[in-house]
Write a structure and sequence with these properties.
Elements lengths: L18 E5 L5 E3 L4 E3 L1 H9 L4 E5 L7 H16 L5 H9 L3 H37 L1 H10 L12 H20 L15
Parallel strand pairs: 1-4
Antiparallel strand pairs: 1-2, 2-3
Amino acid sequence: MKKSSTSRKSETDDSRPKLVIKKYSDRRLYDSSTSRYVKLDDVARMVREGIEVKVVDARTGKDLTYVTLTQIILEDAREHQIPLPLQFLQQLVRASDQATHEFLSWYLSSTLDLYQKVQGTVRTRLPEAKGVVARPIEFVRNLLAGHAWPPPAPTPDDSEVEQLRRRVKELEARLGGRDKPAGRRHKAPQST
């Protein structure tokens, strides 16, 4: 399949371009951006790649995206034995009112967002975890001593600090030896 974004039809539901797939009465799916028929597996792959897909009935223009994505989930469940808990599926079937559907949609969306954030955090903190695994004794020693992990950046050694202090004193002596302008002299504090 071509990945040309210029030939893709764009819908601005939420300001993101969407690939429009037309579904015909014979259940065939047509990708108008590439001018070819696609299979349900192709649509699933597009969604997994992060492409926003919108499926519409070719005759009426009705949005069939929800039905198509549900069909993809069911097909995957048949082939890969996706373990959705039986109790969850029963509750989903029993949930016939709009409020329950809205709550479940919100809950699932929030849960998946949280899961993706946790995955991102794990990916970014993985190098730190590898360091802990590579040096477990050092980690435990620091933990017991009350030090933070990872260890803080090294501080300058004492000789370097002493050199800086001497340099500051030199500069202060130089500045003190210069004549100060008359308007900038400070009066000594008077005792009362």
